[in-house]
Specification:
Order of helices and strands: HHEHEHEEEE
Helix content: 40-55%
Largest sheet: 4 strands, antiparallel
Structural class: alpha+beta
Shape: globular
Strand content: 15-25%
Radius of gyration: 23 Å
Number of strands: 6
Number of helices: 4
Length: 140
C-alpha cells in the first residue's frame, strides 16, 4: 500500500513539473500556426438582407412549409463551423429561414450567426447547411 502511494505522489509530481516547465513559445507557435491556416474570407456567408428575407419568410410561411415538407436534418460541414469559431462569438444562434425558389417552392435553411461578449450580433451570417430533403445522401 505504501509503495502505491509513493508511486502516486511521484507520478503527480512529475506530471505537475512537466506541465509547468513546458516551453511558453510552443503555445504561441501553435496558436500562430492555427490562425495562419484559417481563411480570412468566409465562403458561406450571406448578406444581412438575405438573412432578413429568409427569416421573415420563415416567420410568415414556416408553419405552412412544415405542414407540407419535413426537413429530416441539416448537413453542417465542419470547416464552416471552424470558420465561425474564428470570430470568437460567445453565443451561437441558429435561425431557420426559407429561400424562395419561385413558383411557390421554397428551400429551408439553417443560418448561423452569433453574439459577442456584450450581446451584440457579430454581423456575419453563415448559410452553412444543406437540408434533407434535397441533399439527403446516404443518411435519409
Amino acid at each position: 500500500m505504501k509503495t502505491s502511494f509513493q508511486f502516486l505522489v511521484l507520478f503527480l509530481f512529475v506530471t505537475f513539473y512537466a506541465c509547468n516547465n513546458a516551453p511558453k513559445s510552443s503555445v504561441e507557435e501553435v496558436s500562430a500556426a492555427t490562425k495562419s491556416t484559417v481563411s480570412p474570407t468566409f465562403q458561406d456567408t450571406i448578406s444581412q438582407a438575405t438573412f432578413t428575407q429568409w427569416t421573415q419568410l420563415w416567420d410568415s410561411l414556416g408553419s405552412n412549409y412544415s405542414d407540407t415538407s419535413l426537413v429530416k436534418f441539416y448537413k453542417l460541414p465542419i470547416i464552416d463551423m471552424s470558420e465561425f469559431l474564428t470570430l470568437n462569438a460567445k453565443t451561437a444562434l441558429f435561425y431557420q429561414g426559407l429561400e424562395s425558389l419561385g413558383a411557390g417552392k421554397y428551400e429551408a435553411h439553417l443560418v448561423l450567426t452569433g453574439l459577442d461578449s456584450r450581446g451584440n450580433n457579430i454581423g456575419k451570417y453563415f448559410d452553412v447547411t444543406q437540408p434533407c430533403p434535397r441533399f439527403c445522401g446516404p443518411f435519409n
